[in-house]
């Protein structure tokens, strides 16, 4: 059975041509429909297909308070006063993406995916947020970020930084200081800095970023050096050596004896002296009972002040290494 159309082939052809021309001039592009079972965030991001830029003035018409706050940020200084390219001149849409689709139905929560948001609540995938930031910040931040501990744990740039922040003079941090920003997640380290022997972070003489690179590193724990020892030697140069008589645990890793963040024992020791030494040196001639002040030493001699001081370093003063001819006892 044939279908009878009221339109001729010529009329249909003219109609198709007119529709194509209108679509080309108006920038209308068909929106892909999310496949059944697709992730919600993937479907949301598809909502911005075919969007075009509308300009900062259109954004400000609704978002005046945010625009006023943005005026006092570092990004505003760059985008408005000294843009490096055409993209930065777009201001709001430089980071949030083209806003025409959002403009069609801004009050609809389902329309959130038409713009890139930089909060967890907004729902933009972390990878999409980070790609927006890294499109400009392409230095060491981009080089080491991929595969870093923070990236593999799904941390976004906006978890530490706030591009709208007013109270952070540098880094656009979400907290007033670098340390407070790190403590948001690293509560255990915060507790260690409260112990009686600690690195001088609470006193403001150091920051977490003096030792760690939060954007990624080739070493473990995001260190700013190739190893723990190399990092420590940046400040503790007198311990570097090389020494004629090396102390193997020291050469292996400073963390063998020390806790880098804080300890209830002096010198950031993980175990109190002399018990730290006794973890390796438990055999004669220095038995554990040598340090019990109520007992005698050797052939009945009275315990002297050095032994009662209960520290191996009363005699072995150069435990990090020595160049003295006295040998490997590290006494000089």
Note down, in words, how this protein is organized.
This protein is mostly helical and 332 residues long. Among the domains are: 48-114, no CATH class; 138-228, no CATH class; 245-314, no CATH class. Helices cover 34% and strands 1% of the residues. The chain has 17 helices and 2 strands. A two-stranded antiparallel sheet has the order 1-2. α3 (56-62) crosses α4 (64-70). The termini are far apart. Residues 1-46 and 291-301 have low confidence and may be disordered.
Fraction in helix: 25-40%
Order of helices and strands: HHHHHHHHHHHHHEHHEHH
Q: Please report the distance between the alpha carbons of the first and last residues.
A: 109 Å
- Using only C-alpha atoms, the radius of gyration works out to 32 Å
The secondary-structure class comes to mainly alpha
Overall pLDDT score: 78
How would you classify the quaternary structure? single chain
Q: Strand content of the residues, in percent?
A: under 5%
The parts where pLDDT drops under 50 for at least 5 residues are: 1-46, 291-301
Q: Count of DSSP E strands?
A: 2
What is the 3D shape? elongated
Q: In this structure, how is the largest beta sheet organized?
A: 2 strands, antiparallel
Neighbour order of strands in the largest sheet: 1-2
Supply the number of helical segments.
17
């Amino acid at each position: 059975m044939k279908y009878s159309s009221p339109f001729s082939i010529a009329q249909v052809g003219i109609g198709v041509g007119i529709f194509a021309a209108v679509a080309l001039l108006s920038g209308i592009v068909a929106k892909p429909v999310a496949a059944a079972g697709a992730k919600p965030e993937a479907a949301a991001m598809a909502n911005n297909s075919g969007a075009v830029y509308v300009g900062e003035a259109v954004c400000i018409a609704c978002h005046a308070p945010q625009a006023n706050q943005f005026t006092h940020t570092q990004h505003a200084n760059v985008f408005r006063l000294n843009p490096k390219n055409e993209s930065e001149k777009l201001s709001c849409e430089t980071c949030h993406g083209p806003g025409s689709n959002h403009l069609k139905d801004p009050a609809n929560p389902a329309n959130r995916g038409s713009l890139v948001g930089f909060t967890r609540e907004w729902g933009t995938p972390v990878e999409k947020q980070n790609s927006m930031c890294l499109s400009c910040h392409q230095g060491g931040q981009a080089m080491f970020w991929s595969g870093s501990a923070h990236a593999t744990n799904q941390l976004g740039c906006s978890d530490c930084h706030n591009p709208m922040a007013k109270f952070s003079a540098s880094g656009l941090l979400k907290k007033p200081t670098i340390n407070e920003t790190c403590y948001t997640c690293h509560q255990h380290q915060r507790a260690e800095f409260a112990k009686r022997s600690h690195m001088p972070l609470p006193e403001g003489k150091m920051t977490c970023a003096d030792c760690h690179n939060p954007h990624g590193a080739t070493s473990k724990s995001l260190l700013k050096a190739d190893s723990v020892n190399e990092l420590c030697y940046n400040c503790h140069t007198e311990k570097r050596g090389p020494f004629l008589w090396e102390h193997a645990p020291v050469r292996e890793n400073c963390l063998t004896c020390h806790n880098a963040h804080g300890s209830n024992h002096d010198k950031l020791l993980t175990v109190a002296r002399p018990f730290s030494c006794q973890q390796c040196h438990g055999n004669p001639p220095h038995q554990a009972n040598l340090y019990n002040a109520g007992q005698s030493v050797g052939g009945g001699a009275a315990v002297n002040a050095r032994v009662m001081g209960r520290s191996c370093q009363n005699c072995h003063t150069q435990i990090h290494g020595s160049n003295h001819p006295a040998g490997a006892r590290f006494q000089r």
